[in-house]
Structures are given as C-alpha cells and as structure tokens.
C-alpha cells in the first residue's frame, strides 16, 4: 500500500512541476512573438527557450490507475486500468455498462 501511494504522490508532484514549466514556456513564446520588443531582448528570450528544450520540458506523462497505480492499459476517461475497470463492472460498482458478446 505504501508503494502505491508513493507512486501516486510522485506523479502528482511531477505533473505540478511540469504545469509550472509549461506556463513559463508559454510566456516566453508569447514575448518572442511580440512585435514591439527590442531585437536584443528577443534574442535573449530565444536562448532561454533553447535552454528549456534542452532540459526536456515535454516528457511523457504516465497515466496511472487510480486504484492500483498500474501504468499500462489505463483508460483516460475514468483513470482505471482495464483489469480494475472489468472488476468494477463485474461487481456492479459502475452503472451503465453491460457485457457485450457477438
């Protein structure tokens, strides 16, 4: 149980840091596209933009299951892995779903 909470907390922290960095990156891009700024300032901002891209500002974020923290085959809509999703439906905890067969 402790490992499960550790992965979820680490993921939340990582997403928060990435959100802050993305906000800074968008500010820099908008300032570079401003026509009223001096050329020297634009050059400095473009260097900072290159620094961000070297650091890897857009890494892949793993979607994790809310219950098991499994990182594979997670549905984005409900944040459940396919195994947990199947179990929750079979126990009747999720309404509106029915087993289909054809």
Task: Record keyword descriptors for this entry.
102 residues, mainly alpha, 30s Ribosomal Protein S14, Chain N, 57% helix
Tell me about this structure:
By secondary structure, this protein is mostly helical. The protein has two domains: 1-61, no CATH class; 62-102, Ribosomal Protein S14/S29 (30s Ribosomal Protein S14, Chain N, Irregular). It is 57% helix and 4% strand. The protein has three helices and two strands; from the N terminus they run H-H-E-E-H. The protein has helices at 2-32, 39-55, 82-91; strands at residues 74-75, 80-81. A two-stranded antiparallel ribbon has the order 1-2.
Percentage of β-strand residues:
under 5%
- The tally of helices reads 3
Q: For the residues shown, what is the average pLDDT?
A: 77
Task: Name the quaternary structure.
Answer: single chain
Describe the main β-sheet briefly: 2 strands, antiparallel
**Shape assignment:** elongated
Rg to the nearest angstrom? 21 Å
- In whole angstroms, the N-to-C terminal distance is 39 Å
């Amino acid at each position: 149980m402790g490992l499960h909470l550790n992965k979820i907390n680490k993921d939340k922290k990582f997403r928060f840091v990435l959100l802050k960095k993305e906000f800074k990156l968008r500010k820099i891009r908008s300032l570079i596209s401003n026509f009223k700024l001096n050329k020297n300032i634009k050059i400095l901002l473009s260097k900072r933009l290159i620094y961000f891209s070297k650091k890897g500002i857009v890494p892949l974020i793993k979607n994790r299951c809310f219950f098991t923290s499994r990182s594979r085959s997670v549905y984005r809509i409900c944040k459940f892995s396919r195994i947990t999703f199947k179990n929750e439906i079979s126990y009747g905890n999720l309404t509106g779903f029915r087993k289909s067969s054809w």
